């Protein structure tokens, strides 16, 4: 039975949203390869809409945990920068509870998009809960 999709990352408000949605787990063909999560980046604004398929490895989830910790401490973050996968940058707006979310795809579409979204303190509890839910729903071994 397939599991329902889970939004690992969900930043939304004021008509804009950036979501990283996990849709399932893919078994690798070779026994030496780790399983991988299948997902997509979803961007929806009044100006631009799009989706981009992605694969997420256990190391990516651990790095998202570290990125969340840094973001919660008030630092801008980069997630998956330098990989052959879409990158995610979140820059905090010092004047209010907003952030600039940039998704950069250097390998397939060669497109970069930046969206402004709210980032209230309550968002962090939800973000950690989403990460835990992904680990519980699709346990993965080390790659």
Automatic annotation (TrEMBL):
Pfam families per UniProt: DUF5959
Highest rank taxon of the organism: Bacteria
InterPro entries named among the record's database cross-references: DUF5959
Name used for this protein in its record: DUF5959 family protein
Organism this protein belongs to: Streptomyces carpinensis
